[in-house]
Amino acid sequence: MDLNESLDLLVQEARELLTEMESALLAIEAEGVSDERINSLFRAAHTIKGSAGLFGLETIVSFTHVMESVMVEVRNGEREIDTNLASLMFECADHLGSLVGALEAQQDLKQHEPERHADLLQQLQQLLGAKAGTAANASITEKNAAANNNGAATPMRNWKISLQFAPDILQQGMDPLSFFQYLGTIGTLTSLDTITSAVPALAKLDAEQCYLQFSVELESNAERAKIESVFEFVSEGSTIDICCTDESDAIDDKSTQATIAAKRLPAAAKSAATPERRQNRDNAVIKLEARKLDQLIDAVGELVIRSASCQNHPDVRRSAGLVELMESVGQLVAQIRDRALDLRMVPIGEVFHRFPRIVRDVSKELGKRIELTISGADTELDKSMVDKLTDPLMHIVRNAIDHGIESIADRVAAGKSAEGVVKLNAYHQSGAIIIEVSDDGRGLNTEKIYRKAVERGLVAADSKLSEREIFNLIFAAGFSTADQVTDLSGRGVGMDVVRQNIEHLRGTVDIFSTPGEGSRFQIQLPLTLAIIDGFQVAVGNAQFVIPLNMIVECIDLPTRSTSNRIFNLRGQPLPYVRLADQFALDHNRVIRNNAERECLVVLACGEQRCGVVVDTLVGELQAVIKPLNNILTGIHGFSGSTILGDGCVALVLDIPALISMAAESTGSPADADSVVGAAPITKSSATAKPYTVTTR
Amino acid sequence: MSEVFMTVIARIENATTHLQLQGALTIYEAAATAQELLPHAQQATTLCVDLSGVTEIDCAGLQLLIALQKENAFVVFTTPSRGVTDVLRATGLGRTLSVEAA
Which residue of A has its CA nearest to B56? Predict the structure, then answer.
């Protein structure tokens, strides 16, 4: 492990601690002060200080030291956390976060936001009074000295460390093994012996006490102070002997003993270690470069194609044994594919967990009271999407609070509770991820939107728009209905960016709104997966692939009905497109036994349905989606291409686009709620079996 | 997370009690696991403990294994998982505990 990796660990750890700190602050604001929350604030500052000290990062050390001092006063009951202090702490946490960011980017910390740094330091020190200020300075010089010593080139020396930890060290969430890993970063562990004589038999064992003792030999050029600092967080009751075994230093060093005493650490820092550690531990994580993952998925993609070609190879087909073998290989390949793709999936909670803080800040600024409820945080989606979702979601949430939720007075007048509710929700629905932001505010004012849109020349004054089209106007560039321009919204930038961002992810945004009751923004995103379970269909010689999870059922189209583009599906109107006509395909199709019959594939995407008429149903396959060449990207209706087992190319149909084509060709808007448009899924058909196919 | 808890699967075959440990073996599971292992350690004549399913181990887990061996000397630990092997090697406990690779 080199220095950079340890720094990475520091950055990662600091981020986790800052998140903890933030949630503790939020909890304090919402539910009041508790010991555990104060401890968690204290621990965050303290631990960051400790690890930063190891790297000689004095900017961070001095800053966290002052934060820590303030927290000590709070913990000792000498100071209360009021809103001012909480806000200050929020700012400090933000500043630390940005320092850590600068550290990660390998910038000079001293040059990083010096004014803000000084300002926050001053505020903190004002709180503490002059006395603490000098104490902080003293500590800096002390740390400086230590850091300088570490920097000097000292010769390699052999150290013998014997460790007898306090019995309760495990309960404090510390694992002695981690010290050895850490020692490994400042030198080479030449030997590690575990002394087990103190361990009793199982019947007498208290499994949560530490009985093991260790004897370590370390070869390192680090100073004694540095080695001692490794055990800085070890609690009272542990005995740690560090001695240098090299002859030259033996005289001064051999006899010295360093017993880690309690005075190093105020007591609460230790006792608080357990509960939060427990939480974080559950997410044991390996950091991985995204590029490596993509390479793996690429390779797995190729594997899937080859495996499919093998299964269809005529030589294989001839031998029953081989067929069986290839099928089991195929199953394994499918498993590998699923797991590989799963690696890219992360819970959307990663995005959602930032929102309590955002909502707090925004609502405070606007003088509104907001309750944020989050559900579906474990819904998984592609990692690349998670990163791009934060901004659009943030805009929508801000808008909901700024425009949607009324002021407290208005709410009370309207007979609502003073506290507005904003909900974030995520779930999967037929091959897509739905993310919803809803509020119980005043709802969208269609008249006002329409008037403003006409004013700004976005629509003609006499145009007749459906409610849905009017809602969509708020996504137009430069559109704003806010009477007052605030810091947060109303300047007309934002919602158009939201839509752009989401369209980049091949998703859509829909708005549902009831005046006086609230609005709901629904973002629908595809599960952009590189490999999908597909269903292969053919028109003439052309092969197409449809994502399997979008297929509701397949039925035979009884007669060649030419003009009518609506099919009567058990009493429900279903618009359909004929792929041959849509893409002007050659129609000299292969005559089958029942040549006059065609197949209708019923597709569902979200709440809309349509049918696609094809000549033949070929069967299921695993399709590795390749992006379309630039020349083809302008063509509507395809989302990619794939290579079939026999080496032919098949195009992957873009179902949402097809649905809107079907709706257009019937001459009605693609409204989910209109009668003849893409028909909404009714209860009965939505619960129908996924699909019924007769193939080959 | 499914791997948080330790499950102990026991089966008795030819007078040997086979125990299969599955999950993490750390301070969080140690007390419960110790309780679960104790009757087996006391009643069985010989014990065979399969460590292949142990996903994570820390000091508490290690000393639990040592205590188990002290309770019942006729114990063999088999097929330690990669993580366990590494820890045993690092701590030198592979010599103290009677571990069979496979």
Answer: A284
